[in-house]
Amino acid sequence: MTVLAASITTRSGKPLLSRQFTEITKDRVMELLSNFQGLVANISSDHTYVESEHVRYVYKPFDDYYLILVTNRQSNIIQDLSTLNLFSQTVNYYLNSFDEGEIFENAFEILSSFDEIIVMGNKEDLTISQVNTYLAMESHEEKIQEIIERNKETEANAERKRRAKEIARKEHERKMGMPSADDLSSHKFMGSNDAKMETAYNSYYSHASAAAQQSFLHSQQQQQQKVQDQQYSKYQGTSNAFGGSGMKLSGNNKQSGAVAARKLRPLPKEPEEDKPDNNGILISIKETVGAEISRDGSILSSELKGVLELRINDESLAHAKLQLTSNVNVSDKSFQFKTHPNIDKNSFLSSKALGLKSNDKAFPSNDQSLGVLRWRKVGTADDKSIVPLDISTWVTPSDIQEGVFDVTVELEINENYKHPLNEITFNIPIGTSNVSISDDNNDVNATVIEANEEEGVIIKVERIEPGSSGVFSFTIDSGSEETLFPMNVCFKNELVSEQSFTGVGISNIVSSKDDSEALPYDVISYLNAEDYLVV
User: Fold this and answer.
1) Which among 269, 319, 466, 490 is most buried, taking Cβ atoms within 10 Å?
2) Which family does the UniProt entry place this protein in (predicted)?
């Protein structure tokens, strides 16, 4: 058999990865993949290969993608299918959620495994375990390069220490009043204008004892001080001659004092984010949701990103293994889970446990947050599963004044979200101060907190309880309805809860050395809005 190329494409025909194993151009590969889409659309799903006039396509669909081998028509179909199966195993080894971004992230490893399987168009007699072994083998050149880099770092550190000692020695000599070689070279003999005499004195004192050198330097400093005093007196006399007042050491210059005070005043520090207390092990489950919502309340698109962070401040608790709640489905294709590289991925997929690959190793116990699990979910149109706040708007031109609009906003917490939402703000992108909340239609205590050209109009709602809805109306000066959109909606929530909005949570934490030893822990979940837009 001769494999011309191996590729991964989407069901719609978009090429993601491709490796050519023979002398074939990129344009030719793109043409072959384009022809494949036309052929596979006309056959039933039971087939695993199709043929064109010149080549054979052996393919395997997985999720929303195709894994395709392009071979010549004379190749053995049995061998083709065996090779395709090995390719499929290598792809499954590197991918978890079959997300397009994850495919690009692991592209180097996937293509390297392809190169191990096919050499010059011919299949190597390998198993999946052998492929993984070859890819994990150490590189002699890489080790040499690492040694060179370490030697460079060692030399740099040695040079830094030498420079530090030299600076410390010069500082010590300065404090002791001893001249350094730099001082002697910079101070010329000033007792004579004869160049030969100056050279002779400098040569003599450069090799003299320390006491003689100090005496020589002291005399030079006295000479320099006399010259400076003469210059200063001359300058002072010149200033007085022209009616100047000379240099004043004190005065009533308030402006200069204010400038000096500003220079001396330390810059204000930016406020640091409050760090929650940690009683040993603290789990922070942070989720950020974004959405595009039409003015009538329809969900156009939505996306949720989450991260589970671990903070440990007690070394005795560092050997920990986190167990997710039973409702978390790690094989759910709608979620895209990604574990930290040091986490045992197989244990996570099989038992929903988050622990290090080696039970003898421990998590850092420096009380710093460490992300151990990430996830992402993209909602479809009209899918409210990851949209905690439903929003509908009605915009009506005012009957009283042209260019003024009456806007009514209805809010309702999604039935899937069982907690209140706090500090909900609506940022309306129009620079005007002519805005007012209607007292007759405001059951959520909405208030205008900003209304200017820089910030636009910001309306704040303090809190909405779960399972409830609310309405507020406002009148605003605007050129047209379109200038009021998109409205950017922000909200945040912090809860002491075992689970997040999407249900990701911790059921218990045990010691990685002894599964029967339960470890104490606390859980805080967060939900924030980012790019939550009404368009």
Assistant:
1) 319
2) Belongs to the adaptor complexes medium subunit family. Delta-COP subfamily.
